[in-house]
Amino acid sequence: MSATNLKGKVAVVTGATRGIGKGIAQVLAEQGATVYVTGRTVTSDPAASLPGTVADTVALCNERGAGSGGSAVGVALDLMDQSSIAALFARVAEEQGRLDLLVNNAMAIPDSMTWKTGFWEKPLDDELGILDTGLRAAYIAAWHAARIMVPQGSGLIVNLSGYVGVTYTYDVLFGTTKSGVDRMARDMAIELKPHNVASLSLWQGFTFTERAINNLRDVPGMAEQLKSAAGSSPEFPGRVIAALAAEEGIMARSGGTFINAELAAEFGVTDIDGHEVPSLRQERGSPIWEPV
Questions:
Q1: Quick check: is 137 in a domain?
Q2: pLDDT tens-digit profile of 261-270?
Q3: Between the N and C ends of the chain, which has fewer C-beta atoms within 10 Å?
Q4: Pick from 102, 106, 85, 287: which is nearest to 199 by CA?
Q5: pLDDT, tens digit, for every residue of 167-190?
Q6: CATH number where 269 lies
Q7: Among the listed ranges 3-12, 17-26, 258-267, which one has the minimum average pLDDT value?
Q8: Average pLDDT, whole number, for the chain?
Q9: What is the pLDDT of residue 126?
Q10: Alpha helices in 132-225 (DSSP H)
Q11: How many CB atoms lie within 10 A of CB 5?
Q12: Residue 207, exposed/middle/buried by CB under 10 A (0-12, 13-18, 19+)?
């Protein structure tokens, strides 16, 4: 993978203060893109359960992009506030005049998601936050992105999903949200196809994010449950997305749901430590949607 595959490209990554979004943003900047790093956390809080701020990720992206011309712009973003999402894309249009890539990564993950209780025993507002941030906000972001991409006749909308889209994992609304994301990406692709804009969904397996590492330590039974699971770094999906964003024939994939590990094998992409991440298709299920 060339270090300047995405030079001159403009990307928006939601939920990039930590975890997968942070990893994706760093890879895109390293590949030469201008990355709008978004998230709610803008100031450090020593009492916070998880580290990371928008500014922290911006600094890492600028460091990683120093040799390729890549850089980052930090934007505070509340995905529960529709006007905040609109303002983000208005800023991108004004400052850059284009948008090449939207990565819908963000999703609220309340503590209740991993509780071993029935859905009716979980706080309703907390659970609905999964749906509101993971699906509703993703749709709103894609709506605004399309209004930039369609007139320019190019662009790629990537939605992060997972095996949970077809296999029960943790929580009712977790699976419902990701199933909806897959279908949304497919139906958007149908309407975007005449305008040469691609939309697709990516399945990521277990990822060693800050929160996941905490859960392995703190959530009863999780470490045992995942003992044999194949995990990857938070940068792995970014490596796959960078390869997709640089692909000339990306429209042939539009509308499909793809497993990151399988695309990585196709592109010759490995994780940051050089290991090949295995597909869990046989163990956890297969995507439903093919390209349109």
A1: yes
A2: 999 999 999 9
A3: N
A4: 102
A5: 998 899 999 999 999 999 999 999
A6: 3.40.50.720
A7: 3-12
A8: 91
A9: 94
A10: 137-152, 172-192, 210-218, 222-225
A11: 18
A12: buried
Q: How far apart are CA 75 and CA 196, in angstroms?
A: 28
Angstrom CA distances, 262 to 14, 84, 276, stand at 24, 35, 10
Contact 97, 11 (CB under 8 A): no
Q: Residues 96, 101, 105, 106: what is their CA dihedral angle, to the nearest 10 degrees? A: 20
48 with 84: CB under 8 angstroms?
no
- Structure tokens, 253: 């994939």
132 in a domain, yes or no?
yes
Q: Does any domain span residue 109?
A: yes
Rounded (10°) angle between helices 236-245 and 260-267: 60
What string of DSSP letters covers 103-120? EE------GGGG-SS-GG
**Domain assignment of residue 289, yes or no:** no
Give the tens place of pLDDT for each residue, 66-107: 999 999 999 999 999 999 999 999 999 999 999 999 999 999
Tens of pLDDT, residue by residue over 110-146, are: 989 989 999 999 999 999 999 999 999 999 999 999 9
Tokens 């992060």 sit on residue: 160
Give mean pLDDT, residues 231-242: 94
Count the domains in the chain: 1
- Residue 194 burial (CB < 10 Å; 0-12/13-18/19+)? exposed
Six-digit token pair at 168?
């029960």
The residue type found at 268 is: G
Q: What is the reported pLDDT for 51?
A: 67
